[in-house]
From TrEMBL:
Gene Ontology biological process terms in this record: L-ascorbic acid biosynthetic process
Protein name: Regucalcin
GO CC aspect terms: cytoplasm
InterPro entries: 6-blade_b-propeller_TolB-like, Regucalcin, SGL, SMP-30
């Protein structure tokens, strides 16, 4: 919610502001967030939109972690559009996307302390011959084999990557070019749900792709996702 992290009581609709970060740019805000295997909530901010390209104010965002005791920790800054997060099935690696970099970065992840280290590139869209057809990495998820599924904004597809080799393994075409995120769901976690957005779409684009803004379900991929992590606050925390 803007620059604030809030708690929503689902049954009553009551929201409680937990933290609000200082403004660095002219319209910076939180964007994507996800819980880690220990129940901490990670989320990052992004710069304000400058034009309809869209272009965003550069390097004003930061990546934060809301610990289970309610403490908010900033891990690093100089982010432009904070997006996808995922953790390897063995809980050893955290993956992260700052969309304009066109990369998926990897960090050594310490599940007990919540610390991250050894920042490096796992996937670089710019290294592929077909990079112009790959769009921009946005939200992502991971399967039980440790492969990343990355929603490619502007390309109408989700690409599965091996983060160890950096190679693209499979792609799923979505009939809406502004693919924003994806996650596994269904009874057996073998269905891939893909979100798309209509924001910024031109009239001609909407005529060609009338399903812009829809949520899609993809079946028959032959893989399963890992269960979503849930925020686990300490018993004596005041959140």
């Amino acid at each position: 919610m803007g620059r604030a992290i809030s708690h929503l009581e689902w049954n009553t609709g009551v929201t409680t502001k937990l933290h609000e970060v200082d403004s660095v740019g002219f319209d910076d805000r939180f964007n994507d967030g996800k819980c880690d295997p220990a129940g901490r909530f990670w989320t990052g901010t992004m710069g304000g939109q400058i034009d309809n390209m869209p272009t965003y104010e550069k390097n004003v965002g930061s990546l934060y972690c809301l610990d289970t005791n309610g403490t908010l920790v900033k891990h690093f800054n100089k982010i432009t559009v904070s997006n996808g997060l995922a953790w390897s099935p063995d809980k050893q690696v955290m993956f992260y996307i700052d969309t304009p970099t066109r990369k998926v970065e990897a960090f050594t992840y310490h599940v007990t302390s919540g610390k991250i280290s050894n920042r490096r590139d796992a996937i670089d869209f710019r290294s592929f011959p077909e990079e112009s057809m790959m769009g921009w990495p946005d939200g992502m998820t991971i399967d039980t084999d440790g492969h990343l599924w990355v929603a490619c904004y502007g390309a109408g597809k989700v690409i599965c990557f091996d983060p160890v080799t950096g190679k693209a393994l499979k792609e799923v075409i979505i009939p809406a070019p502004r693919t924003t995120s994806c996650c596994f769901g269904g009874k057996n976690l073998d269905e891939l749900y893909v979100t798309t957005g209509p924001n910024g779409a031109f009239d001609q684009e909407l005529r060609y792709f009338p399903l812009c803004g829809s949520v899609f379900k993809v079946t028959g991929l032959g893989v399963k996702g890992v269960p979503a992590n849930i925020y686990e606050r300490d018993v004596d925390s005041r959140l």
